[in-house]
Design goal:
The chain has 198 residues and is mostly helical. 69% of the residues lie in helices and 2% in strands. It is elongated, with a radius of gyration of 25 Å.
Length: 198
């Protein structure tokens, strides 16, 4: 009788453990999302390598000081979120199983791809220059030259701006030409470039 009761209780115990692990998985994801949002907001005004001179555009908003003050607590929050995901994965493969379930359907795969695109593209929603990428200024410079060519009624394939000239399509393909087209409607080339990236 005791063995029957013990055997019957095992599936229930597994279900309870599964619920706990799923709850911990979501908690870890929420903590990592909070860290990511904080990092994005902080990098708008307090990036380590910033090409943006905020003193030219008015005072830095007060909330930036709060973001800077919270940087270490939020790093701890992000670390805890990562440790939770590692723990539930090592315990029962919860992260892997959740990804398999999400990717098993088109809707789940589309949601995951959309979240990744939103996370990676959220940088372009920030104010100012696109400065975190090493080629960011090159993108904008070539886009500006392409816009200038279009305004002069020329094909945006070559520029005489530097040295003996430079091919606009050599390094970035048709990207400068497309950004130049957007730049015809948006005078600020940084904003035009970010719009195209989105």
């Amino acid at each position: 009788m005791q063995q029957t009761t013990s055997a019957a209780s095992r599936p229930g115990a597994r279900r309870d453990e599964g619920r706990i692990l799923t709850t911990l998985l979501w908690l870890g994801l929420i903590l990592l999302a909070a860290f990511f949002i904080h990092w994005r907001l902080k990098s708008a005004y307090s990036a380590t390598y910033s090409y943006y001179r905020w003193d030219e555009f008015g005072p830095v908003p007060g909330w930036d000081a709060l973001m800077l003050t919270l940087r270490w607590p939020m790093r701890i929050v992000g670390g805890l979120g990562g440790l939770l995901l590692i723990a539930v994965e090592l315990r029962a493969g919860t992260v892997t199983n959740s990804l398999h379930r999400a990717l098993a359907s088109r809707r789940g795969a589309a949601i995951l791809v959309g979240l990744v695109a939103l996370a990676s593209g959220s940088y372009y929603l920030l104010p100012g220059q696109i400065a975190l990428s090493s080629d960011a200024l090159g993108y904008t410079g070539y886009a500006y030259l392409a816009r200038q060519s279009l305004q002069l009624g020329q094909w945006p394939i070559w520029s005489n701006f530097a040295a003996m000239g430079t091919p606009l399509l050599q390094f970035y393909g048709f990207y400068p030409a497309l950004a130049g087209l957007v730049g015809l409607a948006q005078p600020d080339m940084f904003e035009a470039t970010k719009f195209l990236e989105l």
